[in-house]
From TrEMBL, chain A:
Keywords: Cytoplasm, Nucleus, tRNA processing. GO terms for cellular component: cytosol; elongator holoenzyme complex; nucleus. The gene is ELP5. Its main location: cytoplasm. Belongs to the ELP5 family. This is Elongator complex protein 5. Residues 215-234 are annotated as: Disordered. It comes from the Eukaryota. The keyword Cytoplasm applies. GO terms for biological process: tRNA wobble uridine modification. Pathway: tRNA modification; 5-methoxycarbonylmethyl-2-thiouridine-tRNA biosynthesis. It comes from Odocoileus virginianus.
Automatic annotation (TrEMBL), chain B:
Pathway: tRNA modification; 5-methoxycarbonylmethyl-2-thiouridine-tRNA biosynthesis. PANTHER family: ELONGATOR COMPLEX PROTEIN 6. Pfam families: ELP6. It comes from the Eukaryota. This is Elongator complex protein 6.
Length: 300, 288
């Protein structure tokens, strides 16, 4: 699965959530790239360098260049430990650093960058970073730049999510069920229809990936086939079944409060329905029997 | 104010077992709480939904003071005397801790007025109250940093530094944007957790309101940054005299990426006068 994610190049978007975190997959992809002999540049905004490098052995760590935006991204510290120029310059500087040879850039995370940079600026910079301006034929496949971006889905509205999604060559949405993580992958190959794939996986402690089988849906508890099913209506003192004739009569019955065509006609036809009721009013001694209509003086 | 607070009902707590520990060596696992095993340099997020989660704040405050840690308490919701009274029921005196230098408190309710009486050059931790547009929380971070900075040279009398915030949702109500609050927590993590190997405990409210986007962004952003989330929820079926709510414990950013089986636990609880009793779902003594 990791090879296919890294094969297309361009922007690989990893969409995760609070429940299904994506940093482990990001680190697995970083490890895979490093093992292929590539330089990996990591722009770390959310975790410290020690935490990111944790779990990697020395061969991978030696190929990993960590650009630390975690310690002082907004230049609040007195002796400035910040990267010069702030987040945007740090991002643009990666473009120059990866100009020679195949490289992988990991952005941890795009959510942080999206909160601190305007969305159009970020999209333009990402576009330039993943070298999408040049035609695929210009640069040989070995010199592709791969940008892996971790994005926390719940933190952004549909606008920025859609913008980043449209920039991505490969989009991985992490979810899962019953303790098993899954990745829904969307590949956008040039001049082809987008293809979908769902893969169940787990990440091992050394950040290698293990594919899993889809967990079975919860099965209904099946009744024991040996015990014969008992019909509860056999020994009743009343009849629950209808014969065919009874059923017909029942179906043709009009319900008393249903407004059918016959009823409508009966109401419209005057005369026959006048037989009914009269009201007899016997006034008390104190009743005021004024026959005038109190609303007469209203000019309506 | 967008949010209403329940008027200061004392929630007293003594949680059996170590819900938090400053150093792994000192942790005494007692039953289920033992494998909560917090280590140093972690952010614990306290979250409450449809209930009052402040009992957890009181617990952590008294716990870390008893564990001889240097505590910086950003108390934005209640007065100092309220926390002190509850703390005394739990066996700590906040006044005494403050006097001996173990506890630094920012009492939001009282010191908010000082913002307007200070000259502009002297930045008050709650300086954002004075700004017309949504500012950032750099002065608040500076206060925390100055309060918890380890003493240069010589041994510090206290163990690891701890930042306790009650609570972060109030900052949203006061006009600070969610990204600014996330940046503040980010800087505190970088300094308190990573540099000084201390812990951070912060309370945030889950309004449950789908239209409150700022609250959602804050809660989700903090959840992504946290190592441990303790979520106090009211029962789905409503108020109950014997079970006050349920506590969900969720570990995030585990060291072992696949240790999912132990990732979350749920307990129900009942708050009593000086302690909280926890039990498995459906096993309340009142029901059995």
């Amino acid at each position: 699965m990791l090879e296919s994610l890294l094969a297309l190049g361009g922007l690989v978007l990893l969409r995760d959530s609070v429940e299904w975190e994506g940093r482990s997959l990001l680190k697995a992809l970083v490890k895979k790239s490093a093992l292929c002999g590539e330089q990996v540049h990591v722009l770390g905004c959310e975790v410290s360098e020690e935490e990111f490098r944790e779990g990697f052995d020395s061969s991978i760590n030696s190929r990993l260049v960590y650009h630390d935006l975690f310690r002082d991204p907004l230049s609040w510290s007195k002796p400035g430990k910040a990267l010069p120029g702030g987040p945007l310059e740090a991002l643009r500087a990666l473009d120059k650093k990866t100009s020679s040879g195949p490289a992988t850039i990991a952005l941890d995370s795009l959510s942080w960058l999206l909160h601190h940079l305007p969305c159009p600026t970020l999209c333009q910079t990402l576009h330039a970073l993943s070298r999408q301006d040049s035609c695929p034929g210009d640069s040989p496949p070995g010199e592709q730049v791969r940008v892996l971006g971790l994005l926390h889905e719940e933190l952004h509205g549909p606008g920025p999510l859609g913008a980043l999604s449209s920039l991505a060559q490969t989009e991985v949405t992490l979810s899962g069920t019953m303790g098993q993580a899954s990745a829904h992958i969307l590949y956008r190959r040039p001049r082809q229809h987008p293809t979908h794939q769902t893969q169940w996986f787990s990440i091992l402690p050394d950040f290698s990936l293990e594919l899993q089988v889809e967990p079975p849906l919860e099965s209904q508890p099946r009744s024991d086939p040996h015990t014969p099913s008992v019909d509860p209506t056999t020994h009743l003192t009343f009849n629950l079944h209808l014969s065919k004739k009874e059923r017909e009569v029942k179906d043709s019955l009009t319900l008393p409060f249903q407004f059918s065509l016959e009823k409508q006609q009966a109401l419209l036809r005057p005369g026959l329905s006048q037989a009914t009721s009269h009201i007899f009013y016997e006034p008390d001694a104190y009743d005021d029997l004024d026959q005038e209509d109190p609303d007469d003086d209203l000019d309506v | 104010m967008k949010r209403t607070r329940t008027c200061g009902k004392s929630r007293d707590v003594r949680v059996p077992g170590a819900l938090g520990s400053c150093s792994p060596q000192r942790a005494r696992p007692r039953g289920w709480a033992g494998h909560l095993g917090l280590r140093k340099g972690k952010l614990t997020l306290l979250c409450d939904a449809k209930t009052d989660g402040s009992f957890l704040v009181h617990h952590f405050l008294s716990f870390y003071l008893k564990a001889n840690c240097k505590v910086c308490f950003v108390a934005l919701v209640q007065s100092f005397s309220h926390y002190n009274i509850v703390g005394q029921k739990l066996g700590v005196s906040l006044t005494a801790a403050r006097e001996r230098g173990q506890l630094a408190v920012l009492e939001g309710l009282r010191s908010a007025v000082d913002v307007f009486f200070r000259p502009r050059e002297q930045l008050h931790p709650l300086q954002f109250l004075r700004e017309a547009s949504a500012g950032d929380l750099q002065p608040l971070y500076a206060f925390v940093r100055d309060a918890l900075e380890p003493v240069d040279g010589g041994e510090d009398a206290w163990r690891c530094p701890v930042l306790l915030v009650d609570d972060l949702s109030v900052l949203l109500s006061l006009g600070v944007g969610p990204v600014a609050v996330l940046d503040f927590v980010h800087y505190c993590r970088a300094t308190v957790c990573r540099e000084w190997k201390g812990n951070i405990v912060a309370l945030v409210h889950d309004s449950g309101d789908a239209e409150d986007e700022e609250s959602d962004v804050l809660l989700n952003g903090l959840s992504h940054q946290s190592h441990l989330i303790l979520r106090a929820e009211g029962l789905a079926t409503g108020f109950c005299k014997d079970v006050h709510g349920q506590l969900r414990i969720l570990w995030r950013r585990p060291l072992q990426p696949t240790a999912h089986r132990d990732r979350s636990l749920t307990y129900q609880y009942k708050i009593q006068d000086k302690s909280v009793s926890f039990f498995a779902k459906g096993m309340s003594p009142a029901v059995l």
